[in-house]
Amino acid sequence: MRTLPICIAVVILLSSCSVVKTTAKAVYSVGEFAVNVVTSPFTHDEIESIDGLSPEEAIRQGRVKNSPYVVHGKTYVPMSIEEAGDYKETGMASWYGEETRRKAGGHITANGEKFDPDKLSAAHKYLPLPIHVRVTNLETKKSIVVRVNDRGPFAHNRVIDLSAGAAKKLGFYQKGTARVSIEVVSVTADAGS
């Protein structure tokens, strides 16, 4: 008969639980304790629609790879897998990190992957997701390969936004920006699906 008290305790515990779903996480609370859990799909704060769908629906349908999307009323049309194969660009890079994770939706990339500021990842407005690019800091000549799995940057005439970890490896974390060259090194198998 020990199972009856255990069952009653579980029912009482579950009845006091509440789940509040937000766009990128679920908040589970039991009494005065709350636990944040990252979930997906998400709504990226800046991305209004992807291929005419809500970000959640576009991710559910697997349509974020190179579908047109809208940010602040402007439509962006990513390049095709074929166009991306020959992509090279030079311009200003910036970085994003923990401050992004504190934003609503900041734990998940536009591709639906978990954002980790210490990993070597990046955001780009036009490349299909995900894709790997070599980024070279033109001042220091340091070079790394990063996984592009997010959209942006959408301000200040920047061509790529790198994770904080990537900015540290390239030597411009303290400075905040750097002039870089970008070149696609591999179109991953899942970028074409």
Provide an overview of this structure:
- This protein has helices at 3-15, 55-60, 81-84, 98-102, 164-170; strands at residues 17-21, 25-30, 33-38, 47-50, 69-71, 74-76, 88-96, 121-123, 131-137, 143-150, 158-163, 177-186.
- It is an alpha+beta fold.
- The protein has 2 domains: 3-38, no CATH class; 80-192, RlpA-like domain (Barwin-like endoglucanases), CATH 2.40.40.10.
- Strand 5 and strand 6 (74-76) form a beta hairpin.
Write the layout of secondary structure elements.
Blueprint: H1 3-15, E1 17-21, E2 25-30, E3 33-38, E4 47-50, H2 55-60, E5 69-71, E6 74-76, H3 81-84, E7 88-96, H4 98-102, E8 121-123, E9 131-137, E10 143-150, E11 158-163, H5 164-170, E12 177-186
Parallel strand pairs: 7-11, 8-10
Antiparallel strand pairs: 1-2, 2-3, 4-5, 5-6, 7-12, 8-11, 9-10, 9-12
Features:
6-stranded mixed barrel; alpha+beta; 3-stranded antiparallel sheet; Barwin-like endoglucanases; 193 residues
Brief characterization of the structure:
This protein has 193 residues and is an alpha+beta fold.
According to CATH, the homologous superfamily of the largest domain is RlpA-like domain
Distance between the first and last residues' Cα = 55 Å
In the CATH hierarchy, the architecture of the largest domain is Beta Barrel
**Number of individual domains:** 2
Radius of gyration: 20 Å
CATH fold group of the largest domain: Barwin-like endoglucanases
Class derived from helix and strand content: alpha+beta
Provide mean pLDDT, rounded.
76
What are the segments in which pLDDT stays under 50 over at least 5 consecutive residues? 4-31, 33-43
Q: Please indicate the percent range of residues in DSSP E strands (runs of 2 or more).
A: 35-45%
